[in-house]
Design brief:
Structural class: alpha+beta
Shape: globular
Radius of gyration: 16 Å
Strand order of the largest sheet: 1-3-2-5-8-4
Helix content: 10-25%
């Protein structure tokens, strides 16, 4: 949950890196294969006041070229669903709620009013971290930041360029590459969204190209949405 755009943990990390005035942090997928995993990009989004600094932690089989699929509260399950009942693999869902409570399978709720239908906290969570936001709040934040339109529209990406991953973001994800000085510049595209409650592709050692030995894989969370697991 604390990887969702606008979470207290991501906002605090940006503030600790002295970047919160002009930037906000996030994670997701950029392109459909594994080649971008571990990279960070500065992404300017139409209608959003701050520039995103997003790390690629997932391999998006349904993500097109030029599309950044950003993790946010109720962003939509996409191909896999570990959030709600019944899950894709038949296992226990992170939230004790039906899929209908999350809106559309792709994109989640199309209107901000739908956020109030969501469950608030993962079923296994005994005590929420101090000051962290619940799922309903984080869904509202996605709309309020302009990361999803009033009717669920996907905002336009104005530009994307590679940037070294900030220390605060790496501390949260546990992932870093050895080619941090490389440059890339991309044109326009679309910002989409997701939240599937599944372990990301980069959570397995060996999946991320040029991974730094000190930070070889994403450190995923357990069923409570916050507790980090070893990889």
């Amino acid at each position: 949950m604390d990887w969702n755009a606008g979470s207290t943990a991501l906002e605090r990390a940006a503030a600790n890196d002295h970047k919160n005035v002009h930037y906000f942090y996030g994670v997701g997928s950029f392109g459909s294969d594994a080649s971008n995993m571990g990279k960070c990009y500065k992404i300017k989004i139409e209608g959003v006041s701050r520039t995103g600094i997003f790390q690629v932690i997932n391999q998006g089989g349904d993500v097109s070229t030029g599309q950044f699929d950003l993790q946010m509260g109720d962003g939509g399950f996409g191909i896999f669903n570990g959030c709600a009942n019944p899950t894709t693999d038949g296992g226990k869902a992170m939230y004790n709620a039906p899929k209908s409570a999350f809106g559309n399978g792709y994109g989640g709720w199309s209107n901000e009013s739908g956020c109030d239908n969501l469950p608030m906290w993962p079923d296994a969570l005994e005590s929420p971290p101090a000051d962290e936001k619940d799922l309903r709040e984080m869904c509202h934040i996605g709309f309020q930041m302009g990361l999803r339109g009033a009717n669920g529209e996907n905002p336009r990406i104005l530009s994307a360029e590679r940037t070294p991953c900030p220390d605060g973001l790496v501390a949260l994800t546990g992932l870093k590459r050895t080619d941090e000085g490389a440059t890339e510049v991309h044109g326009t595209g679309k910002l989409t969204r997701m939240m599937d409650c599944c372990k990301p592709s980069s959570g397995w050692i060996g999946n991320t190209p040029m991974a730094a030995p000190s930070h070889p894989a994403v450190i995923p969370c357990g069923a409570d949405g916050f507790t980090r697991l070893s990889v």
